[in-house]
Amino acid sequence: MTFLNEFNQWTPERVQQLIDAAGPAQVEQALANEHLRLMDLAALLSPAAEGYLEQLAQRAHRLTQQRFGKTIQLYAPLYLSNLCCNSCLYCGFNADNQMERRTLSLDEVEAEARILHERGFRHIQLLTGEAPGAVENAYLAAAVQKIRPFFSSISIEVYPMDECGYAQMVAAGVDNLTVYQETYERSLYDELHPYGPKRDFDWRLNAAERGGSAGLRSIGIGALLGLSDWRKEGFYVGLHARYLAKHFWRSRINISFPRLRPADGGFKPLAPVSDAALVQLICVMRLLMPDSALVLSTRESASLRDHLLPLGITQISAGSSTSPGGYGQQAESSQQFAIDDDRDAEEICSMLRAQGYDPVFKDWDRAFLDNSNR
Ligand code: SF4
Q1: Where are the beta strands (DSSP E) in 80-217?
Q2: Quick one: pLDDT at residue 116?
């Protein structure tokens, strides 16, 4: 059974009913269970669990320290291109937005990569819009090969590919795939993506699975928080994460919590997510997926990020630019979204050490994979 089959069994109405049916007894039962069932997931995401935030936070904190110790892994995003043929209403790179568009040449990619390498980063995430004819698999593979000497882990957050495309990325040196569903609510997804290849909900939904089949070492998923009800989105992210962990047990599953930020085009969150809701969601995901990396980007403010760390976050970005060529130039050009935490890597490391965490720039090397294949 593919994830799409499982997903289709969980209509929004069915998920809502499960969440609505949860009361204090269901929440307490869920908190007492070592492994969460789907009904526990719904109970902990429900309004009834809001009175148990302290217990949730303590358990999430304990689990995170047991599995990860006091470490936080740092990574940096590198935007390769802001060309895009899609119409995602919430995104600054939306094809309808008038802005300067550019795709970095391979030499420019290398120049940006060198800057990030000099800043200490060894884990990098490459991002692009979707632009057939301009940004293709061959370009991405060439970019990955160009920067491979500088980084021990290369992640992609790009357009969905078929399994051969992901295998091509693995061969080039990519080990990590991130693909957000944006919203798991199909009807809303249709409204938010009026045209372009991204309209194909099912193709996107199965992308993580295709990446797993192609042998990617880690697979990241998430919902763009602020588009739809976060409790239902949290349920679907949990359902998806559980499915991937079961079927691709050799891969690590990463869960991200991107909350909508101001972007060119002026899109406003349709269902704003409060800080308390974000805390609840992060804690629940930690309880559901004790071994998953939980990722928080510079979309969030410095102070909130500092406070969220003990609850289960294990990876954060630092000193980020969200525009192509943004590290080598002084003034930011068109960004995908505005960042809120603009501290550089050194400042983030100082903050982490002050909180008793070890900042980790490298926790993976391709040699591990090469050895395991011998
Ligand atoms: S979210 Fe991605 S696909 Fe959609 S407009 Fe932005 S860059 Fe393009």
Answers
A1: 123-127, 153-157, 176-178
A2: 95
Q: Is residue 369 part of a domain?
A: no
Closest residue CA from atom 2 of ligand 1: 129
Q: How far apart are CA 345 and CA 329, in angstroms?
A: 17
- By three-state DSSP, how is residue 49 classified? helix
Q: Which residue range is the domain that position 101 belongs to?
A: 3-363
Name every protein residue with a CB atom under 6 angstroms from any ligand 1 atom: 84, 86, 88, 91, 93-94, 129-130, 198
222 found inside a domain? yes
Predicted TM-score of the model (pTM):
0.94
Tokens standing for residue 254: 């990463």
Question: Phi/psi class of residue 357: alpha, beta or left (left: φ > 0; alpha: ψ in -120 to 50)?
Answer: beta
Listing DSSP states for 303-320 in one string gives HHHHHHGGGT--EEE-S-
For residue 297, what pLDDT is reported?
84
Q: How many domains does the chain have?
A: 1
Summarised one tens digit per residue, pLDDT across range 282-298 is: 999 999 999 999 999 88
372 located within any domain: no
